[in-house]
Write a structure and sequence with these properties.
By secondary structure, the protein is an all-beta fold. The chain has no helices and twelve strands.
Amino acid sequence: MREIKFRAWDGEVMGAVYELSFDKRGILINCGPRGDDPIGVAKPEGDICLMQYTGLKDKNGTEIYEGDVVLMGHHWDKTWSHKLLVVKWVPSGYIIPFGAGDWAVEGDDVEVIGNIYENPELLGGNT
């Protein structure tokens, strides 16, 4: 069974999500910067971007989240190629769109090098 966890981007800081709760304003999220104690700030969902852990790790053991930018190597027609791709959710699971088809994260040479919020320049600013 995959571990369910999230991280969140508030426009300035990426942090681990420690608690999700609900009230009349919507979903409230308590989070703090990576490696720090939670700052205990609750924000309505619209003020923060949630990313779910895929349950997978890259070749270096780094957890892969939705919205991560990965450098993916893939053997294609006897040629090894590398592309920068974004991890996305579709109804069948987490994928990284690669060329004409969607390729699963598992089994490929994948390395997390950033994410679409903190590192938009990796994809030319277009996500």
